[in-house]
Amino acid sequence: PYIQNFNDLSNISEWTFSNPDTNKWFIGSVINHPEETGNALYISDSLGLTHRYYRSSQTYAYASALIDFGTSPAAEYALSFDWMGGGESTHDYLRVYTLPIDQSIPETGFPVGGTEVINRLNLQTDWQTKTLILPASQYQNSIQRLVFVWRNDGSSGTQPPVAIDNISIILQTCASVSN
Looking at residue 29, what is its pLDDT? Predict the structure, then answer.
């Protein structure tokens, strides 16, 4: 039910950013994605001019969009996105959540409630594709907030911070193979 590659700037208004004073989410063409040209969603400490992060203060930055999972029969949903980012092993990383539409995003820290769908992505400075399955029983007939949270702890870390591109959520009518 959702596809976003950030290249059509008139089509990004559904994204909301809750940014701190430093290390903010931006959409722009600063990122070098080897398989495409155009824009990506990324963290920057320079108002989007560079894909770098300030490592001397703790940050929680949130990028979110509302996703209508619709009423069509589904076995499951496949969430996929390209990502890259350095960070620091257990301190600077990306987490991904889905939250009910009435759940607010905190001013700082990780969301309480909702579902943490990815715990920690970091230490990959080459683009990777992450794909995971969302169960239809949890998402069908609902509108959820998809939330990307960048967290850094204010000490050290490897540049660059996280970048995201080519987000898709695809309805699957046949469940994935298991067992």
Answer: 85
Tokens of 110: 């990780």
Task: Please tell me what DSSP assigns to residue 86.
Answer: -
SS3 9: helix
Q: What is the DSSP letter of 10?
A: G
In the chain, which residue ranges form alpha helices assigned H by DSSP?
136-139
Task: Yes or no: say if 164 and 43 are a contact pair by the CB < 8 Å rule.
Answer: no
Q: Which two tokens stand for residue 87?
A: 């960070």
Q: Could you report the per-residue pLDDT of 52-84, keeping only the tens digit for each?
A: 899 888 899 999 999 999 888 888 999 999 999
Q: What is the pLDDT of residues 16-34, one digit of tens each?
A: 999 777 899 999 887 777 6
Contact 145, 105 (CB under 8 A): yes
Nearest CA-CA partner of 172 in 56, 26, 69: 69
The pLDDT value given to residue 111: 87
Taking all residues of the chain, what is their mean pLDDT, rounded to a whole number? 89
Query: Among candidates 171, 106, 178, which has minimal Cα distance to 139?
Result: 171
Closest CA to 152 of 50, 59, 86, 44: 59
Q: What are residue 139's phi and psi, to 5 degrees?
A: -115, -30
Q: Is 137 helix (H, G, I), strand (E, B) or coil?
A: helix
Q: Cβ neighbours of residue 121 under 8 Å, at least 6 residues apart? A: 83, 85, 93, 94, 95, 96, 130, 162
